[in-house]
């Protein structure tokens, strides 16, 4: 009961705290219907228990239906797609539902009603669909049971539809709002069956995103928009060389500046706190800081590139070895070999990292945008020295995630500063800190070899990769086998039919931290494999589409995607001089995506991607709109990386600092993008947020080859010499 | 003391004159719809209107905004949604949404001076950064907004 009281007390205080300072904008001003509160973190059991049918579904007497979303909305549309899954079973009017985030605190103290709340690995729909269907169906069954009991009839004679339960024999009906309080008390003897895909009415239909209205008016609250009474602001300088540490920061030099409050050492760096962020940031710039840059201060990218190449010569750990690879190479008519290289990449979500923390001896509140609210909660508890069940994470909309918000370095620092000052603190990383202190997509080198038979078909593949270990970098484990899944995904499961396959791996880390970057290992491995297949096709004198097709005849799902793609993407039709089409296909996160890129290369070597056609097999689609948007998004995220993306190191430091030197695709760089589906259905439910990214880099590289005859084997393309 | 006109309201503020308008809006006035993205006028997430023209507010000192009419995303379409906001909804533009205040303000400014922009005009004028890749939908939505504004 104590927990309940605490939660209710919190809600009242949080609303007044957050609302007291905010400039309130009435939703009626805009005239737009709001389906989600601009402050999406909702409550820790905010709603009166009377209307809460289960942890996901709250129905008020006025028939308003609130659905709780236990994944983070970072643009991928989960607030809408997961709500659709709940509503599908609930049999309510989807136009009337509202959504809010589920509470990580409640998940902790109430036995995990929301399952795992982390958002990553393109797993939200496929990982929680059954669970959510069951929650929706259970709520519906309890509403039906409540109505049947009220009318003294059999539940099986009642029908739930459009937010009401009806008993046809006497034409009686009651709305969900009228039944909710009773339904909340119903204990079902058995959970109802959930619908199979052929019974879906809502899933599979195109639904506008629920978060659009609050995001076109500026009302939507991202973590960075948090405002609390008596809040102070912190700007951070992280040690310029990873692994270094703070020696000294001369507070005297800045303590007379207007608004200055404190200099606080934090993990990996130092924070300057002031009464306004601008003052904190300017004071930090004027603060003399002495760093011990540590052992890595003399490293650079040229050295790393040489080291990754050298690592391909061993020692290597074996991931896959089947068939007679040495024999196939010994008997081959021809061997094709190529080296592919990719750089570190930053995530650069549009919302710079930030966290607002309010530490008290017996409670911590954190306002943040995080992909993993449960991890954030535990981390805040650990850093703040407060019991986890007294920590509240109020997740905002995420201004992009792409993997960066899986580990919240900014939260650790915000809690440290708040604890030091005993005040609510909003800590913001500048874009420079974001670019220079990311946990990056690993740098990698890959050497791919193919043995070809006399007919030009490959008889064996021998793939090697040298790449940073994400597991080791995060401190999550030593990876004693020397192979981690993300290092070899897309290599170990290469779909092309070949008699023998060997995949070896050298996990090699530098001092630069690495982590999950949209599509993870597939982001580099698809570039290598799909470029290589093109090279092998050309060596065999075959059309890249026909060549792939012949090697995929054991995979009808791949063939369906490939054939639809070739048709919709005008494969084989002539292109103007200086232009070309390239094709790539890759399976990741349970989904196959094929893409055809059309590019034009100018005489000076400037690459313009004019059109991208994509075809997707994710098994089933919840919301075609948000799937199409995710493919567009994944294509442009990968296109930016392919064309421009490069994090380089000099003297141990990241050389890039902001969007002037870490270039991002702009409108003029954006191709026309079309998305098509070749759904295999059945029991397959694939992910959607990431699988569109891997094929775009090789599709562009292959198109450049088609246009110019030049093969690009190192990204980004801006460094390739493509001029005439 | 600086006096600023923002969304039709007057604010008298005791701030350093060089404070960028971005931070004046967000931290002094509490209008958080204008976003911090880069701080060097590269990304446009902080775009506001100064006397009707799109300006990246992270590089606009407050002193230079004195005497001018400042409009933010919160003040756009003071009597209901602006045509650009309606078009953004109809065209299902946004994903994470963080850059969209700036995109919408840039589009509204573009349409004010060029009511019927071509794709090339949009490519040239809409240079804000989006990491979600909403570019193709922004292009479509600007055309839709141009059509809505004519109605």
Walk me through what this model shows.
The complex is a heterodimer of chains A (about 725) and B (about 150). With about 725 residues, chain A is of the alpha+beta class. Chain A has 3 domains: about 1-215, Aldehyde Oxidoreductase, domain 4 (2-Layer Sandwich); about 225-295 and about 355-430, Aldehyde Oxidoreductase, domain 4, CATH 3.30.365.10; about 300-345 and about 440-720, Aldehyde Oxidoreductase, domain 4 (2-Layer Sandwich), CATH 3.30.365. Chain A contains 20 helices and 27 strands. In chain A, a hairpin with a 5-residue loop joins β19 (about 445-450) and β20. In chain A, α11 packs parallel to α12 (about 410-420). Mean pLDDT of chain A is about 95; it is low at about 1-30. Chain B is of the alpha+beta class and about 150 residues long. Chain B has 2 domains: about 1-70, Ubiquitin-like (UB roll), CATH 3.10.20.30; about 85-150, [2Fe-2S]-binding domain (DNA polymerase, domain 1, Orthogonal Bundle). Helix content of chain B is about 35%, strand content about 15%. Chain B has 5 helices and 5 strands; from the N terminus they run ββαβββαααα. Chain B has helices at about 20-30, 85-90, 100-115, 120-125, 135-150; strands at about 1-5, 10-15, 45-50, 55, 70. In chain B, α2 (about 85-90) crosses α3 and α2 crosses α5 (about 135-150). The chains are: A alpha+beta (about 725), B alpha+beta (about 150). At the A-B interface, α7 and α19 of A face α1, α2, α3, α4 and α5 of B.
């Amino acid at each position: 009961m104590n927990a309940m009281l605490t939660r209710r007390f919190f809600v009242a205080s949080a609303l007044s705290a957050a609302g007291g300072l905010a400039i309130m904008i009435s939703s009626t001003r805009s005239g737009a219907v709001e389906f989600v509160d601009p402050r999406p973190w909702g409550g820790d059991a905010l709603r009166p228990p009377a209307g809460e049918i289960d942890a996901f579904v709250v129905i008020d007497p006025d028939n308003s239906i609130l659905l709780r979303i236990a994944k983070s909305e970072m643009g991928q549309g989960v607030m809408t797609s997961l709500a659709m899954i709940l509503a599908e079973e609930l049999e309510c009017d989807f136009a009337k539902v509202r959504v809010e985030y589920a509470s990580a605190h409640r998940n902790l103290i109430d036995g995990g009603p929301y399952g795992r709340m982390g958002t990553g690995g393109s797993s939200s729909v496929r990982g929680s669909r059954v669970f959510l269907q069951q929650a929706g169906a259970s709520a519906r069954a309890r509403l039906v049971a409540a109505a049947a009991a009220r009318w003294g009839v059999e539940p099986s004679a009642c029908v739930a539809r459009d937010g009401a339960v009806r008993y046809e024999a006497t034409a009686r009906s009651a709305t969900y709002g009228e039944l909710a309080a009773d339904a909340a008390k119903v204990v079902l003897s058995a959970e109802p069956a959930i619908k199979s895909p052929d019974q879906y009415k809502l899933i599979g239909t195109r639904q506008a995103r629920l978060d659009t209205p609050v995001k076109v008016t500026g009302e939507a609250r991202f973590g960075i928009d948090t405002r609390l009474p008596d809040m102070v602001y912190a700007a951070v300088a992280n040690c310029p060389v990873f692994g270094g540490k703070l020696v000294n920061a001369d507070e005297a030099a800045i303590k007379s500046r207007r608004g200055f409050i404190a200099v606080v050492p934090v993990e990996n760096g130092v924070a300057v706190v002031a009464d306004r962020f601008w003052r904190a940031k300017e004071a930090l710039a004027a603060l003399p800081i002495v760093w011990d840059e540590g052992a890595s201060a003399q490293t650079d990218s040229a050295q790393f590139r040489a080291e990754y190449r050298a690592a391909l010569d061993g020692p290597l750990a074996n991931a896959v070895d089947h068939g007679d690879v040495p024999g196939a190479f010994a008997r081959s008519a021809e061997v094709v070999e190529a080296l592919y290289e990719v750089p570190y990449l930053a995530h650069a979500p549009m919302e710079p990292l930030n966290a607002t923390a309010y530490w008290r001896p017996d409670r911590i509140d954190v306002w943040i945008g995080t992909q993993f609210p449960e991890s954030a909660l535990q981390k805040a508890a650990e850093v703040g020295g407060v019991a986890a069940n007294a920590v509240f994470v109020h997740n905002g909309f995420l201004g992009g995630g792409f993997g960066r918000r899986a580990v919240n370095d900014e939260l650790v620092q915000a809690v440290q500063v708040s604890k030091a000052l005993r005040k609510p603190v909003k800590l913001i990383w500048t874009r420079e800190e974001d670019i220079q202190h990311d946990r990056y997509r690993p740098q990698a080198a890959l050497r791919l070899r193919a043995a070809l038979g006399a007919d030009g078909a490959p008889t064996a593949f021998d793939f090697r990769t040298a790449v940073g270990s994400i597991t080791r970098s995060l401190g999550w484990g030593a990876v004693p086998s020397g192979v981690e899944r993300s290092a070899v995904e897309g290599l170990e499961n290469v779909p092309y039919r070949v008699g023998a396959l060997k995949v070896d791996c050298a996990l090699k880390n530098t001092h630069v931290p690495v982590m999950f970057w949209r599509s993870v290992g597939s982001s580099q491995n698809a570039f290598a494999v799909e470029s290589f297949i093109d090279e092998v096709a050309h060596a065999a004198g075959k059309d890249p589409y026909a060549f792939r097709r012949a090697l995929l005849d054991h995979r009808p799902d791949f063939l369906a995607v490939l054939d639809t793609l070739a048709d919709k993407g005008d494969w084989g039709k002539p292109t103007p001089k200086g232009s070309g089409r390239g094709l790539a296909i890759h399976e990741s996160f349970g989904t196959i995506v094929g893409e055809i890129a059309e590019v034009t290369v100018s005489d000076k070597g400037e690459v313009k991607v004019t059109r991208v056609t994509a075809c997707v097999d994710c098994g089933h689609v919840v919301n075609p709109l948000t799937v199409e948007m995710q493919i567009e998004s994944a294509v442009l995220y990968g296109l930016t990386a392919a064309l421009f993306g490069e994090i380089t190191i000099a003297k141990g430091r990241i050389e890039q600092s902001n969007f002037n030197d870490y270039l991002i695709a702009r409108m003029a760089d954006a191709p026309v993008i079309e998305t098509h589906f070749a759904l295999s259905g059945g029991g397959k439910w694939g992910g959607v947020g990431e699988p569109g990214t891997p094929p775009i880099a090789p599709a562009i590289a292959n198109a450049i080859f088609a246009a110019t005859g030049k093969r690009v084997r190192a990204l980004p393309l801006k460094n390739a010499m493509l001029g005439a | 003391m600086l006096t600023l006109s923002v969304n039709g309201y007057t604010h008298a503020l005791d701030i350093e004159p060089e404070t960028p308008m971005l931070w004046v809006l967000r931290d002094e006035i509490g209008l958080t719809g204008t976003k911090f993205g880069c701080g060097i006028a590269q990304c446009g997430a902080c775009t506001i209107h100064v006397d009707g023209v799109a300006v990246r507010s992270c590089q606009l000192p407050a002193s230079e905004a004195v005497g001018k009419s400042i409009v933010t995303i919160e003040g756009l379409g003071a009597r209901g949604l602006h045509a650009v906001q309606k078009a953004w909804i109809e065209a299902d533009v946004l994903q994470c949404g963080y850059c969209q205040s700036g995109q919408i303000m840039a589009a509204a400014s573009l349409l004010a001076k060029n009511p019927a922009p071509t794709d090339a005009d949009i490519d040239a004028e809409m240079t804000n950064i989006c990491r979600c890749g909403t570019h193709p939908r922004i292009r479509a939505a600007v055309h839709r907004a141009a059509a809505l504004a004519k109605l």
